[in-house]
Design goal:
202 residues; alpha/beta; 7 helices; binds zinc ion
Length: 202
């Protein structure tokens, strides 16, 4: 289908199609929408993408997406820096921040261990977490991975790596039903899970 369009339109369709959840038909519809849109509207999207890539980076402490390094959470002296909540992705961090109930700090793994998809511990920011725990000696690390097979696998791997460092390792209460993702959980579910967290039995 894309072949019948002029080169620049085919190229845009091909780029949009690479986005998660965008199939060939949606990519085509979006591209045709941008073709019809006035120049200012289309260029605003182009600029937003350019600025996103130019201005954001990962926090050198917690790996959260940020425009300043350290990120505003790591730089906030009113936060409890001795409790680190480990999440898979920055979007999980945003979901937990949305509850307003968590006043400590985070670590984003930038994924989860998924051997079938070729994601191994060394592909995540686990080394950085271990270094951080060794250097800053927090009191507690909460393993708030998603309640599914890969999330549990990741938490298990982290618990094994963290325990010898003498830090308390805890898991959120399983208020979230197995298989439901953090980013789709309600604020009260996330808050209850954090408040009801329990230390991992050794
Ligand atoms: Zn940070």
């Amino acid at each position: 289908m894309a072949g019948v369009y002029p080169e620049s339109l085919s190229r845009l369709i091909a780029e949009l199609e690479k986005l998660p959840g965008v199939g060939a038909r949606t990519a085509e519809r979006l591209a045709l929408h941008l073709l019809k849109a006035d120049e200012e509207e289309a260029m605003a999207l182009a600029r937003a993408i350019r600025d996103l890539k130019r201005n954001t980076r990962h926090c050198s402490i917690c790996c959260n997406v940020t425009e300043s390094d350290p990120c505003p959470i790591c730089a906030d002296p009113r936060r409890v820096h001795s409790v680190i909540c480990v999440v898979e992705q920055p979007r999980d961090l945003i979901a937990i921040e949305g509850t307003g109930a968590f006043r400590a700090v985070y670590h984003a793994l930038m994924g989860r261990i998924a051997p079938l998809e070729g994601v191994h511990p060394e592909n995540l920011t686990i080394d950085r977490l271990i270094q951080r725990v060794k250097q800053t000696r927090p009191k507690e690390v909460i393993l708030y991975t998603n309640p599914d097979y890969e999330g549990d696998l990741t938490a298990h791997h982290l618990a094994k790596a963290l325990r010898p460092l003498g830090v308390r390792v805890s898991l959120p209460a399983r208020g979230i039903p197995t298989g439901s993702q953090i980013e789709y959980s309600t604020e009260s579910m996330l808050r209850d899970a954090l408040e009801g967290r329990t230390e991992l039995a050794t």
